[in-house]
């Protein structure tokens, strides 16, 4: 996680953070009216595909940019309230999880015509979207703004759709250009270390994440439950993905 701090020493990484934040706000605005629950579970977030793609390209800059961009959007729409804190965290994870999961599994250049690489990129993106939905969904539930279900599911699934469809296309179009101009986060932050190989512990962590996420949706949807009764499962999801990203 040190890259989240060290990136602020790089002017180019700061510029990419600003770029991500600006594009996120601009791309979310046109479809802001296509929502459920008064705007708290957005369906028309086509712009989510860009921070997902930028995560693989710009790493921590995408995480900060996505989170900051979401707060700017809240301010612009006069929606800045306690829910913005959970929006910040959820959107930060949206930009942070994909590149960390990718580096935990692969280090070589993606082959975008490969079905295997598409599946891996999609898996990283969907995991980030589901965790984002769980965090924001739980936050809105705790604040008594909206029910946990279907809010968390709508956020997670709709974000995942745009993340895969738009995100992969943007990533495939931009990767070679960004790589050739040495603008990948690994170039800007001089990251040369090779992550540890995949092992049984990471497989177990992925299984725990999937089981915990499914349990969140089932319990939150079928039972009348207090927010803090779900918090342990949400935290388990976060810890499990953190273990994979190490």
Q: If you compute it from the alpha carbons, what radius of gyration comes out, rounded to the nearest whole angstrom?
A: 17 Å
Discrete helix count: 10
Any idea of the CATH class?
A: Mainly Alpha
Secondary-structure element sequence? Answer: HHEEHHHHHHHH
Q: What best-fitting shape do the alpha-carbon axes yield? A: globular
> Hey, roughly how much beta strand do the residues contain?
under 5%
Oligomer state equals: single chain
Major sheet attributes: 2 strands, antiparallel
Determine the N-to-C terminus distance: 9 Å
Summing up helix and strand content along with how strands pair, one would put the structural category as mainly alpha
| Average pLDDT reading | 88
Q: Specify the helix fraction band.
A: over 70%
- CATH architecture assignment: Orthogonal Bundle
What name is given to the CATH topology? Arp2/3 complex 21 kDa subunit ARPC3
Molecular structure report:
By secondary structure, the chain is mainly α. The protein has a single domain (3-195), classed as Arp2/3 complex 21 kDa subunit ARPC3, CATH 1.10.1760. The chain has ten helices and two strands, in the order H-H-E-E-H-H-H-H-H-H-H-H. The protein has helices spanning 3-6, 11-28, 49-58, 60-76, 83-105, 115-142, 148-180, 185-188, 200-222, 227-245, and strands spanning 35-36, 41-42. A two-stranded antiparallel ribbon has the order 1-2. Helix 5 packs antiparallel against helix 6 (115-142) and helix 9 (200-222) runs antiparallel to helix 10 (227-245). It is globular, with a radius of gyration of 17 Å. The model has no long low-confidence stretch (mean pLDDT 88).
